[in-house]
Amino acid sequence: MKSKILLLITLFCFVNCSRSQNTTILKEGEKEVILVGTMHTVPKIVKHSYKPMLKKALKYKPQAIYVESPMARDSISWNYLKNGWSKGYQRFYKLSDSLQKSFDFNPVKFDQTLKKEHKDMTSVDLDYLINSFGYLRDNGNHEYYTYIKKYGIKGAKKPTRHEDGDLTYKLALKLGIKRVLNMDDQQTNKEYHQAWRKCVREGVSNGNNEISRKLNKKDYNSAVVPAIFRGLGKHTNKRKSLERLHKMSSFTYAKVTTPGCTEGERYWNERNMRMARNIAAQVLALEHQRNIVIVGASHIIGLEKELKGKYPSLKVKLAYE
After folding, report:
1. What single Pfam family name could you report for this chain, choosing any that match (predicted)?
2. How many C-beta neighbours within 10 Å does residue 320 have?
């Protein structure tokens, strides 16, 4: 009897391990993109929400990590962001502008320093890389190496409550990835927020705002129980949650068509289209087969549609499907 039970357990483990492996085995030349939706900064009461997401991402063993940070050479986005909505981006642009005028950037020294293992990088090396990425206007990696300088190669001991500190950078460090890849686009973010305010004003009397309020309440209420049991990340990445977030961000919840809501939807879709283009261009140009995109959950449905529709050679999956 014991031998039969042992045999059944062995077969069960074999089947499940095989299934797990099949999700990561790719044919020669085949490239996969896994989309992970984040909650950006989470409240203190659920500060450990990114821990299970990190564990899951590590099992995938991505070779490249894409982050929601503007492309270094996207002058249109940076022209907006230098005086735009984010104080952090404003500070970074000012620093980058200063470094481009004063920092002695050496491409050879930069490459040599970046080839070192993280554990072998000195404080001087880290400072050089931080300044170099600032000079290159590479926000994602400037933040990455600033994080390493502050917390070390094991990352922050206490939760930072943000996707970068608790998921993205810890994932990159554990896998020995030297450089994250930027993919964001904020070229029309100003116009999007203007359309958002316009849509809200229009929705005061036509019932659209009430629909939005109910969606927000449903989104919050449905997340309470999962959040208590550290399942907020998994809940957020369920297709129903992602579709609801997309609907709210794209204003497609509106039953009454208005100019503001229509403009907002267009700008949202266009941003996702350009983000998808930034991702695909790099995935197709680089040698990495297993790619993971860590981005605000509201973007996932739009990115999935764009990537599957316009880049059929890529194998696109949602993280929890």
Report:
1. DUF5694
2. 19
Terminal Cα distance for the chain, rounded = 37
Contact 237, 300 (CB under 8 A): yes
Phi, psi of 316 (to 5 degrees): -110, 130
Look up tokens 């063993």; give the residue: 61
Helix (H) or strand (E) holding 235: helix 232-236
- CA gyration radius for the chain? 21
Tell me the residue type at 54. L
What integer pLDDT is reported at residue 17 of this predicted model? Answer: 46
CA-to-CA distance for 138 and 202, rounded, in angstroms? 39
The pLDDT value given to residue 3: 55
Summarised one tens digit per residue, pLDDT across range 219-274 is 999 999 999 999 999 999 999 999 999 999 999 999 999 999 999 999 999 999 99
Strand partners, 31: 314
